[in-house]
Amino acid sequence: MISDQAKKEIDIWVAKYPEGRQSSAVMQALTIVQKENGGSLTNELKQAVADYLEMPTISVEEVATFYENYNHKPVGKHVIRFCHNISCMLNGSDELISYLEEKLDVKTGEISKDRLVSVKRVECLGACVGAPMCQIGDQYYENLTKKRIDEILDGLK
Amino acid sequence: MNNICLKSIDKDNPSSLATYETMGGYKVWRKILNGELSPEKILEELKIAGLRGRGGAGFPTGLKWSFMPRNQEGQKYVVCNSDEGEPGTCHDRDILRFNPHSVIEGMAIAGYVMNATVGYNYIRGEFMEPYYRCEEALKEAYDAGLLGTNIKGSKVCFDLYSHLGAGAYICGEETALLESLEGKKGQPRFKPPFPANVGLYGKPTTINNTESFASVPEILSRGGQWFADLGVPNSGGTKCFSVTGNVKNPSNFEIPMGTPFSDLLKLAGGLRKGRTLKGVIPGGSSTPVIPAAKAMKMTMDYDSIEKAGSMLGAGSVIVMDDTTCMVKALTRLAHFYYDESCGQCTPCREGTGWMYRVLKRIMDGQGKSEDLELLLSVQDKMLGNTICALADGAAMPVESFIRHFREEFEYYIKHGKSMVENDG
Amino acid sequence: MMVDIEIEIDGKVVHGYPGESLISIADRQGIDIPRFCYHKKLSVAANCRMCLVDIEGNPTPQPACSTLSSAGMKVHTNNEKAKTAQKAVMEFLLINHPLDCPICDQGGECELQDVAMEYGSDISRFTEGKRIVDDKGIGALIQTDMTRCIHCTRCVRFGAEVAGIVEMGATGRGEDLKIEPFLSEGIQSELSGNMIDVCPVGALTSKPFRYEVRSWQMNSIQTIARHDLVGSNIFTQTHKNKVKRVVARDNESINETWISDRDRFSYQGLNSENRVLIPKIKVKGEWKDASWSDALDFATNGIKKNAKEGSQFGTLASKNATLEELFLLQKFTRGLGSDNLDYRLDTSNPFNAKVLESNISLTELETIDHALIVNSYLRLEQPMINHRIRKATLNGASVSTINAKAFNFNYRISQSVLTSPQNTVATLSGVLKALLDKSSQTLPGYLNSVTIDQTHIDIANALSNAKHPVVVLGEHVNGNKCSDQVAQLVANIAKASEAKTLNASLTGNAHSAERVNFKPDNGKNALQILSSDLTAFILFDIYPNFDCIESKNAIEHLSRDDAFVVVMNSFDDESVLSFANVILPIASFYETSGTHINVDNIAQSYSASVKSAGESKPGWKVIKVLADLLNLEGFDFTDSSQIADEALSLSPSFSEIEVPISNSEMPNVATVWQYTPYASDVVVRHASSLQQTRIGQMSEASVCKATAKLLKLSEGDLYNGIPVNINESVAEGCVFVHTHLPRQLGVI
Ligand SMILES: Cc1cc2nc3c(=O)[nH]c(=O)nc-3n(C[C@H](O)[C@H](O)[C@H](O)COP(=O)(O)O)c2cc1C
Ligand code: SF4
Ligand code: FES
Question: Quick check: ipTM above 0.90?
């Protein structure tokens, strides 16, 4: 269920924590297997992570459902996480989110028809001086305008 | 400006070890490794410096460090809180991106003072760029023999690891952070026991904010008094402020404590053309909003902001001009706390949702005349009744927004739309 | 108890120990502080916030459950500030809680309802639409209605801390926090029903009890559960002469506040269709219903006719019979001049309880620092005893096992030695030798040729390094031909390591049987009774298919034409009909008064909770009448308590005997036959909900690859009717059967 490559990556995290505390690596383990699975988690993956880290499965489920960054349904190849919190809101994020939804013909929380993108409204991502902003993959995009959004979307394959 | 934590921001290759060292970095650490600086001396300097925790609560850092049972046997930990999630706050991100070595050195010093040989830097999960910068910096530090066991033959040991979160504001709360670091969901622990006695993995642990750690090397290198003198009494030194919202030039500014708010506003380019100031949230979304007139009179330090009716918090100044619909702003904040409550305490789990729903209903034109009293009563029942301060953070905006901008709320309820012209 | 600090609660000076929580002090003083998440046997969560109190000097109210007392503290539990906080929390709790008390099974015994009466304001200001939560379903025993959950996490903590199986969790966050298991696989703990008791509201209720009656319509009767060696204290709750529900009754030194699922849900068996309700006699091979007097005449005449000599008569009784029944039956048998009697039907070598005494109390078990468990899946066999050991492990005790299979314990096993039944004597000898070597003691002759290996040394070390070790011998020994030697070696090991002993191979009410000496002095034991030429028998609550180790032989033997068999049973059974001549229906659990003696030698007497089913009568009365009809002396009892008094006046007759250790001949492959805990006696076998659980459904014959090869078994084959599972958790040379199905063979 978990690839050897993913296991290697998980092991790097496990090594950071004291002996017997491998469950400290559970968040990263979930992140790693989620990435490998195209951006979302399944029950089987959570079970596999639980087995690999010797944790009760329900404890992994608790973690997987507590943190915002895990998806429990398939997502687009790129997930655009758009901040709508106060600083971004004051700088027009709502308008830009609407623009994005219209342009992609996709509602927040959904996947575009070509499965290339999904859009998610998220809370503050800690880049408020660059409002409005969004995150795609590991990357932050700040000081967004409609024009900048067009460019970014053009770059997504 | 930008003299301490953000001092490398304009340099080439700001995050590198070389840049850090040309600015005097690791001088203090090397002194320690040479046996020239005792823990007691460090604690004393920190106390003189008047450094207060930058994470929001403003607890004196030196005092916190002195609570650690440094002579108790067994593992102890130093943890850095780089979870930066308070809406309006983003200066820790810049410290991590541009000055990661200051955090490493600060944590190493803390480890030495408290006899803790392992540290973790808990970085919020979305901060991948800062994380990579920190990892690079850690590698540089290890390669330079500045971290590890028996560092440069000094018998001093300190290992430091980055840990990544996965999206939960509550993990900024120190005990939730510890739970999360242990691989659990981030639910705050009740206190006592405090982390200094029972912390990470049940061991004595000290947690400080990124900026708190990053300030330490400079303080020790230039002296506590020097730092204290930068600020005002009871608010020593400089502090990073994120200025966001309706200003021309939103940015992070590291400025002396006690700087007038009006100066800070100017630094941020002032308001946009033709706009007037309506209100300011001075310390991040959890702190009460201050109406314009009062804000313009306050200075940026703990006491003055408190006098103005709010808190310095995390130093996140959210500026709102006359185009802002306060009902909408508050609803957005209420949604945030509703979304981020960990759910364990009854008042927070139920109260955040209740307040958000009432506000949402008002926004939808379904407000009732008794709603404002209801909101005030709900927030009052949450205040002070929970394990952590998230519920307080959810309650205080509601109280302050309604108190200062009541007529806007009443207008919305009565007319089903915003009083602010181009909104709603 | 060190009581050395003084605090003030509501103006009253009270005492506590330093570090004791305010709520615990208040509880002891009878000062009522409302609470939902706090439970005295669970860790403190402080999440419900219901117990907020005002502590002088504190700006905000503090939870009484997580605030530790310190000398001089002044606490107010019901001043304005405290009340305001408590009312606030109550309002929050109620906004999303359904107001469906009239249809909720918890109605009338709901902690939320109780507190709401006192604190809740009756108009709800919450008009936003209540939360509705989907139910996943968690198995046959517990009904979930999670919309009613108040997220106190008692059930979650119970699972993690007491049951030791983390099954329930709190997923999601904020308002979406949900108490649920990972998948709807069903909860697997043998203690799961306690979650029903700890749940303060109607989120978790008893599934078999669902919609039966309202709680306040029932009578609660104090009684004792009878399935294990503990005798957990319970209430039977009855309505219209039926037991509708069983709940735990606190008794700190016996079951604390918990009971096993077996004790909680077995009552369902009583209401099974399969009860014997009317006396029956077999005339010319045909069964006929009979009046009590006809049936009793038929029985006594048959005995008189068929057993002219006492020695032609034999009696077998269930180990779950009451002390009174066992006492009268042995008196009856001996009165007839027979010494052929036994309760040890599942032993192939009715080894003597005298070989291994129990000398540790239940509470003392919590204080051990090492346990060696031999021949036992203790968690399922004796859940409450296992729970005490688990508590010890939470305080750092280690546990090692010598078993035919690696079982799923709810604590870590530091040393697990897999040993087939035929090797158990050798393994234990190795451990004993290692122990004696360590202390340079002279070895008894039988250890000379024993070889010791590292595992023996490890276990010996664990025992000898421990300050308070215990050795536990379990149920599996009963099938072993050398059970007496195994018991002897366990006793010797305990002696050599100064360990306490716990003999958990005596199950049910066996301690009562031992007390009244329900076994032959010189006569025939169970196996002999069932294989020699006796001609008249009494079988008391016995179902040979399940209960007798050589079930097939036993049934054949009892079916002989010249055998007259009087059966006193409470349940119908096909095979019993095939050999019995008369069936006298007797009362079952909770239908008769009686006495149970537990592993601590505590005799607990109880009265009947309900009248016996149909025309059945309490066993002791039937035996008494039979005795009277046969003109036996000494049966003038009018009340079961008189019988108990006489029985208990017999002193426990423990006189140690020494079994010689020898090289007995053993087969190449041995079978260990273990029933699921829900097949351990006839009542629980008829409890339908327990049968539907994962534990109840267990049925597999585990065997390792090598042994499978030897026996030419492959995965999924049937081994004596039980599906084969090949895995390496079983000792070589042995088949481990765990099932709810009847035995089909003789077992070594
Ligand atoms: C809901 C909540 C969120 C918090 N988030 C953060 C945060 O993101 N970063 C931080 O440094 N401190 C945060 N804090 C404060 C920490 O609990 C803690 O006080 C701080 O990390 C201590 O470090 P300091 O003494 O250096 O300020 C938060 C507190 C609460 C109650
Ligand atoms: S199900 Fe019951 S015990 Fe469990 S959290 Fe909910 S209210 Fe508490
Ligand atoms: S009983 Fe104290 S907070 Fe729940």
Answer: yes
